[in-house]
Amino acid sequence: MVSTACNGDGMVQNCHGLLELEYEQTEDSDESYEKMLQDESLKEQYSHAQNACVSRLDPQGFYADMRTWGLDYGPTFANVCEVRNDRDGQSVGSVQIPDVMSWTPTGSDRPHIIHPGTLDAVFHLAFAAVKGGKYDPTTAMVPKSIDSVTISGCVPFQPGTKLPGYSKANKHGLHELVADIVMFDDHSNLPTIVIEGFLCAEIAGASSNNGGNNGVRSLSSKLSWRPALGLLDTEDLGFVLAQHNGRSELVEYLKLLQHWSPSMSVMEVVAGVGADGYLPSTVFNDSSFLSVLKTWDVTTTCGKETQKALLEEQGSPIAILDFTQGDTSDTPPKTYDLVVVSDISSYEPNLEQVIEHMCKVVEGGGTACILASGSILERTQHALEANHMEPTVLQNSEEAGAISAVSQEPSLIISKKPPGACKNATMNGVNGEDNLKHNVVLIQAADPTKAALEVASNLTQSLERHGYTTENFSWTSASDMISVAGKLVISLPEFQQPFLQDVDESDFKNLKKLLLETGKLFWVTALDDPSTAMIDGLTRTVRSEMPGLSLRVFHADGKPTASPTSAASLVDMMVKAFLWTGEDNEFHVKEGLLHVSRIEEDPVLNEEINGLLPGAAKAICSLPLKEVPCPVKLCVLSPGMLSSICLERDDTVEATLEPDYIEINVKATALNFREVLVAMGQMTDSKLGLDAADVVRRVGSSVTVYKVGDRVAMYGHGAHRTIHRSRASYCALISDGMSFEEAATIPTVYATAWNAMGRLAKVKKGQLILIHAAAGGVG
């Protein structure tokens, strides 16, 4: 039993249960054989769950959603690092053991059996199992009871170790969730944590912690196009950021970088408090970075003297890291994909030393973004070069051509760290062998335009400069399509003339070969016509059904070859997109720059949808029943709180009426003791009411006993609603002298009494019967 007392109040019992200690079974005993069978059964269930769970969840997004329910987990407890589900009550995932300071008792080889941060994260897989499904939680849920928790004494405890496992969860009653969870040792592949009957209940009256978002759920998304940062040269980048200076330029660059690389580890280095008491602000504390923080893992660091002031200012966790001090630790420092410094001037006395230490925490292939001005700008640039970084200075518009010592706004330095080892790019095509990667096939339209011929010629020259050989084919020859199997193909039939909207049978066969048999297909369009979007839908569908194919689409403006300069620029962008080894498959040229797309949440549409959802605000309003504009049913918002009983919209009436069912307009329903138990949360159910009576409004196609207008009494689960339906065999005609109220009291109590007396007790005429509580419907 666990009890607590607060502020001198009496002891409050929080939980109670039984603790059992079991020893390992003797080898070759019946108990060990039984344990082996249990383990094999759990492993088989885990294997089935792995095959069924194909919907991948982003752990950061998962915990962000939990925060909107009112469950806010910090870094010590948010340890689910990988998770998938089937959106129907199953999930598989991994829990990473947190790195926390633990004291190891004398004589023991481990500090604990299991850390609370690990065990609590295991429970989170239950919520992941129902995430996105028909029982998707919308408010905070807390454990109510657990049937059993079995933890192996050999469960791993080393920080960073990942425990794989699965969970099965389902709705239990009105506002409860029950789950079973099993976690395994990744090395021995044996169950180490088995949780059965994990029962959670919604917190009565819980309010979502969504920052005043009124419970709006993330249901819709949009396609957002922004410049492809990794494919822009310095001149293009300067053009994109030309309208920004100083801190504004840094913010805009970070947004471009997040669009290009949505998943990054980031360190922001905050300057110290100024001599005048000025408190520096963090870049990522700006409201415009809310979408960025959903995908980036941002760590804010500062000196010890600044930490307290920043904590009071923004409340989020701040790490202490003083770059002015030498690294005395034997452990290599944690590295980040991006380091952001918005005010390097505060480190001026030790600038070179500080930059040296900052460069050490930049991951190979990572980036450092630093704002600097005046003489510090030049010193910073030299210090970065001295530490093997590759800095690029984006001059402000007022400083074009020279470094000004009197600039009002600092300049942005973007410094790349060379990767430790280059990754060899591989092809995802069906037949993409290495011996084919230097041969490119260009396919022209049957009657190409002059601009198309010019682009093909420039493409050939550009590809040859990159070490590729080229072949030119015409679309008209079916034999040419056979010869491109397994090769790298650039398709130009839709360059400046529509193609897909009028394909005949022969063209469609050739198109199938291009899509399914080439090693890599790069489809180019360059005209303002809605038909060019057809290739997007086609390639997205094919990629979804056959993930191994490499299909890329390149869209250019309607007049990309108006001048020799624009034509050369277009070919340059085409070659960049063709040779790009990343995962992007769709490229658009907009305003002379190469753009890529990302799927982002659409808050405007979410708000619109939320406004259309009945009861989205969970507010109860008083309204005469005759004025309710739609069918409704009885519900309980908070089990145990009878004041939360209300009516909500009933969507079941829109379903097709089954052949052997009848439907009635409910005039009367019966209140049984069972409904009281359900409403109080003492019985598990999600529907209220069993008996109803009224006239028939619809009959199923196979029903012959009843017709529209008949007066009937009905037995059917969930009868407390304005329109109800049930099997015709569960209904009975009402005599003219019986009211609807009287008729509604009969079906359940009559069937219960008849079952007890006739089928179970088998009473006979003349026997005496004692009925307790005879005033009730059954007694």
UniProtKB/TrEMBL annotation:
Residue ranges of domain PKS/mFAS DH in the record: 1-209
Annotated spans, N-terminal hotdog fold: 1-26
CDD domains hit by this protein: enoyl_red
Signal peptide feature range: none
Location of the region described as C-terminal hotdog fold in the Swiss-Prot/TrEMBL record: 54-209
Molecular functions per Gene Ontology: fatty acid synthase activity; oxidoreductase activity
One GO term of the biological process aspect: fatty acid biosynthetic process
SMART domains to which the protein is assigned, alphabetical: PKS_ER
Record key words, sorted: Phosphopantetheine, Phosphoprotein
InterPro entries from the UniProt entry: ADH-like_N, ER, GroES-like_sf, NAD-bd_HRPKS_sdrA, PKS_dehydratase_sf, PKS_DH_C, PKS_mFAS_DH, PKS_NRPS_Biosynth_Enz
Phosphoprotein in keyword set: yes
Pfam families: ADH_N (PF08240), NAD-bd_HRPKS_sdrA (PF23114), PS-DH (PF14765)
Protein's name in the database: Beta-ketoacyl synthase
Lineage of producing organism: Eukaryota, Fungi, Dikarya, Ascomycota, Pezizomycotina
